[in-house]
Amino acid sequence: MTPHLYVPSDNSIFFNGDKVEGTGNAVIERLSDIQKIAEILVSKFGSSINAWVVEASTFNGPFAVYKDFIPTIIAMAVAGKICHFMGTGAYLTNKDVIGRRSDHLTRRAFGIRCILHGTPRQWCDRWRTWIHNEKNELFRLLKLAARKNMGKLILCERLYSADRPPSLQMHFEIIENLDVS
Question: Dihedral through CA 141, CA 57, CA 179, CA 170, nearest 10?
Fold first, then answer.
């Protein structure tokens, strides 16, 4: 018997981040596996989605490097090709780029929901304050854009594991804890 094939209703695109092989932490190792990430995405969004897990082709040491990463993500979201995006700690803060994408959204028939997902490792770590600052600036710029585009941009942010100190493990646990509602 052949399983029922669904026409994909949406896309979930996950850009895998930094290399973390050999940590000795079973949770991090499991949640670094691209097949496992794809399975989690399907379990969160349903079996009728295309689950894409993209690995960086370039690394600067252990850190993933995506050329024109954030502008590409915003362009895909405006075109309706992304259902959710989890930040990697690199946030766009160029008001001109956000303004142009917002203008494109205003001319579209549909809107998008932009949810910034993060953990204390990304947003509350006193040793990595630039991430928090960039996230806040992006959120501020998106709020300004949302006021101008006739309600087509719905914006919110979700902080996971807020009651725990920052850790590398929580950075990976967000994949399983992701709230897609």
Answer: -100
Q: Which residues pair with 155 in a beta bridge?
A: 114
Q: Is 119 helix (H, G, I), strand (E, B) or coil?
A: coil
Please give the backbone phi and psi of residue 113, each rounded to the nearest 5 degrees, phi first.
-110, 125
Round to the nearest angstrom and report the end-to-end CA distance of the chain. Answer: 33
C-alpha–C-alpha distance, residues 25 and 28, integer Å: 5
- Model confidence, pTM: 0.72
For the chain, the domains span: 10-177
118-150, pLDDT tens digit by residue? 889 888 888 888 888 888 888 888 888 888 877
Q: Please check whether the domain covering 10-177 is classified as CATH 3.30.70.
A: no
* pLDDT one-digit tens code per residue, 5-61: 667 777 777 777 766 778 889 998 888 888 999 999 899 888 888 888 877 777 777
Q: Cα dist. 96→107, 137, 142, 159, 169 in Å? A: 17, 13, 11, 27, 35
- 96's enclosing H/E stretch is helix 95-107
**Cα distance between residue 103 and residue 120, in whole Å:** 32
